Amino acid sequence: MFPEFCIVQPFIRYDPWNRKKVVAITGASSGIGEATAELLAAKGAKVVLGARRTDALASLTDRIQKAGGQAAYQQTDVTRQTDAASLVQLALSAFGRLDVIINNAGVSQLQLLEDVDVEGWEQMIDVNLKGTLYGIAAALPVFKMQGYGHIINIISTAGISIVPTMGVYAATKNAVRTISEALRQESKGRWRVTGISPGFVDTPFTGKIRNEGIRSVLTQRANEIAIPASAIAEAVVYAISQPDQVDIGDIVIRPAIQD
Ligand code: NDP
């Protein structure tokens, strides 16, 4: 007979791999954000969706819920710091915590620098750079309090191979790359940081470029070579599902044929 202190208790352990993660996603109304939300929700994550178009967010939330998943949404313009903060608050009020924020909202107004499209430059800086910073600002106090968290920034191969017309767009994305690395180093294990740089992805993205000539050239190229948004969503799932002590840093995902 074993003495009482030797009785083996069932081995109950906090298992980060099985935890249903709470994931906030900006720019969830279409493209990569939408595909990522659907895949994460299908894998059991609780997704908190932000973008400006609430009709698209409502129908995505409905689809996820009808498929048995959990989702909440809120109109979010990432150029407003208060909107980013209230998206994170929604995660806390709806699901009790925030495990991951995906700073995905982005725009590209591509133009030669000599065309001096200051309005386009400001739009990209406001959404791609300041919007990402506002997401980080909203999430970090929660991550510090919780002692864990994960920031995923959607960057771009435009920041890796610099080409004409993409100067300011690439600059905003490379600023995010730099900030991601600083965040990683400052984390000291308290949160994880992942930067994902897609190449041409089949989304409405290039169709939103104002300059007609550049829009049609890039849309045609995208039609020829773009990879599905699900390829990026799969990488997000990979980064998120690593054990807490494993940080997936930079991932580049592009069509095999892309220059
Ligand atoms: P989409 O145009 O489909 O998605 C962009 C998303 O950003 C939309 O959901 C849009 O929602 C949102 N968004 C834009 N402005 C704001 C804003 N002010 N506040 C909140 N949300 C905003 O394109 P993708 O899915 O392709 O783009 C997602 C990310 O991927 C972007 O950061 C982009 O730079 C990056 N990327 C895309 C590539 C591609 O080839 N598609 C290549 C490399 C990087 P709404 O309009 O409803 O606000």
Automatic annotation (TrEMBL):
One of its GO terms (molecular function) is oxidoreductase activity, acting on the CH-OH group of donors, NAD or NADP as acceptor. The keyword Oxidoreductase applies. Pfam families: adh_short (PF00106). Transmembrane segments: none annotated. InterPro entries: KR_dom, NAD(P)-bd_dom_sf, Sc_DH/Rdtase_CS, SDR_fam. Its EC number is 1.-.-.-. Residues 21-204 form the Ketoreductase domain. SUPFAM superfamilies: NAD(P)-binding Rossmann-fold domains. It comes from the Bacteria. Keywords: Oxidoreductase. Belongs to the short-chain dehydrogenases/reductases (SDR) family. This is SDR family oxidoreductase. It comes from Dyadobacter sp. 676.
